[in-house]
Amino acid sequence: MDRRTFLRLSVATGAATVLPWYLWGSRSALAAPAVLNTPLAIPPLLTGRSEGDQRVYDLTLQSGSREFFSGYQTPTIGINGPFLGPVLRARSGESVAFNVTNQLDEDSTLHWHGLRLPGEMDGGPHQVIAPGATWTPRFTIHQPASTQWFHSHAWHRTGPQVYKGLAGLFYIDDSLTESLDLPKEYGVDDIPIVLQDRSFNSDGSFRYVDNMHQRMSGMLGDVTLVNGTVGAHLQAVRNRLRLRLLNGSNARIYNLSFSDGRKFHQIATDGGLLAAPVTLSQLRLAPGERAELVVDIRSDDNVVLRHAPLRRRIPMMRPWVARSDAESFDILGISGTANSPAGAGLPDRLVPGQELKPESADATRRFVLNTRMMAGSTINGRQIDLQRIDHRVRLGDIEIWEFENRSPMPHPMHVHGVQFQIISRNRAPPPANERGLKDTVLVDADETVQVIVKFDDPADDRHPFMFHCHNLEHEDAGMMGQFVVTA
After folding, report:
1. Beta strands in 29-71 (DSSP E)
2. CB atoms < 10 A from the CB of 226, how many?
3. How many CB atoms neighbour CB 335 within 10 A?
4. Residue 485 predicted with pLDDT over 60
5. Residue 354: pLDDT band by 50, 70, 90 thresholds?
6. What is the pLDDT at residue 12?
7. 242: Cβ–Cβ under 8 A, 6 or more apart, which residues?
8. N or C, which terminus of the chain has less Cβ within 10 Å?
9. Mean pLDDT over all residues of the chain?
10. So what's the pLDDT on residue 448?
11. Residue-wise over 126-139: b if at least 16 C-beta within 10 A, else e?
């Protein structure tokens, strides 16, 4: 890069910190409604079919359109439908098989986010599904009841494909969880909640990354979708609801609370139930993370789930974003129903704790996260190379992975094929609601997070696992690495 180009970029970057949103932002041409009164869409439930000793699911990646705003058709992609996919459901211990057919006009993949499985079944960028082809992964589910998900992991195309709709939820059940007195009737008191933010052009089409700053910070929209619904409202028919939250946004971090400040209980993290319910009044949820909440709804309630400003330093590169982390906005309206059945009290204990001890670790690995104007987003100073294996792990080993964020923006770090436990944040113990199984952890600016993980599933050089930032624009730009797990 010559001096003139460097100076021009430097001036543009400096201007971005002071210019208003309408010069650098992605403000939608179509505005979200002021009132949340559109009935919340509940995704169809797909339990597959039995064939011998397997449960088989047929999934089709397809193009379509969706009317998010009356009178406007938005081009989309989805799974077995125009936008997003069905909720898949299976049981721990079951053998599952998938026929994933790609009817798109471009390569794609389908990554089983949060599932423990061999690397060749993971659905990362090495398991390409060409247009017209069918991918047939088969594996056994050997993890506890939890809320997982699946989404595109296409090479340099994860962000735009997920943004257009290529994602869905995956429920795992087990007998222990079913024995607990928790809300569990799908779509009635056990509600899937996929949170996403989008921007729209004046013709109704999605507005995706259109400047350098959005590529560097990640794509934030100013219209909230809940299960693909704009202005979503849930009419509760039970007095106790279980909300299975997925942050399916490309880059937005949510700071969730209810409009009246009511308390709620978190009962599960990414990998399943916590040892005991944790009482909260707000919850931070980064891209890729899941959380299960139980909230009581009275018959006369009319409450709103909303995003409140994040109490952290806003990095210098954020001010041009259409709706920044410093703004509040409403997400989902919930109202009660007269004479609805009351929910029972929550159990004091949920599942036995299975804490890994740091002293049992066989090795410690350190990952330095950085984002710079000229170098892009890197891990240990490098960006992804699909021909390079970054780390080799021994099957069955327990390791501590330390993520040190030296960049001015947060990075939600995701590790494929495992569930880990958080040891510390800046050497302090994690909060109680982060002490369950996780596969994605938010590492804030100037923060160091340690996790401990046991590697029980194999991945070879042809089918490695990935570790990466789940800000999808960072991932597509190369903030990702590869590791194998071998005996």
Report:
1. 38-39, 45-46, 49-51, 54-69
2. 26
3. 18
4. yes
5. confident
6. 36
7. 182, 183, 184, 189, 190, 191, 267, 292, 293, 294
8. C
9. 91
10. 98
11. bbbbeeeeebebeb
Mean pLDDT of 175-204: 96
Q: What would you report as the CA-atom Rg of the chain, rounded to the nearest whole angstrom? A: 22
What residue ranges in 249-311 does DSSP mark as E strands?
Answer: 254-258, 264-269, 272-280, 283-285, 290-296, 302-307
Query: Would you state the structure tokens that stand for residue 139, as one six-digit string?
Result: 């594996």
Beta bridge partners of 393: 485
Strand partners, 195: 226, 247
Query: Hey, is 332 helix, strand or coil?
Result: strand
Pick from 392, 346, 372: which is nearest to 479 by CA?
A: 372
Which helix (H) or strand (E) covers residue 10, if one does? helix 3-16
3-class DSSP assignment, residue 13: helix
Query: Residue written as tokens 């560097």?
Result: 216
Burial environment of residue 179 by CB neighbours within 10 A (0 to 12, 13 to 18, 19 or more): exposed
Residue at token pair 């104007």: 373
* DSSP letter for each residue of 192-236: EEEEEEE-B-TTS-B----SHHHHHH----SEEEETTEETEEEE-
pLDDT at residue 71, rounded to an integer: 95
* Residue corresponding to tokens 């094929």: 417
Cα(463)–Cα(84) distance, rounded to whole angstroms?
26
pTM over 0.85: yes
User: Parallel, antiparallel, or unpaired for β 240-247 and 190-198?
Assistant: parallel
Alpha carbon distance 388, 135 (integer Å): 24
What is the edge-to-edge ordering of all strands in the sheet holding 398-405?
376-379, 363-372, 398-405, 448-454, 420-425
Secondary structure string (H, E, C) spanning 372-436: ECCCEEEECCECCCCCCCCEEEECCCEEEEEEEECCCCCEEEEECCCCEEEEEECCECCCHHHCC
Alpha-carbon span 193 to 165, nearest angstrom: 15
Residue 206 · residue 161 · CB < 8 Å: no
Give residue-wise pLDDT tens across range 417-446.
999 999 999 999 999 999 999 999 999 999
Q: DSSP string covering 70-97, please?
A: TTEEEEEEEESSSSB-PEEEEETT-EEE
Q: Shortest CA distance to 400 belongs to which of 450, 356, 445, 459?
A: 450
Q: For position 235, what pLDDT does the model report?
A: 96
C-alpha distance across the termini of the chain, in Å: 45
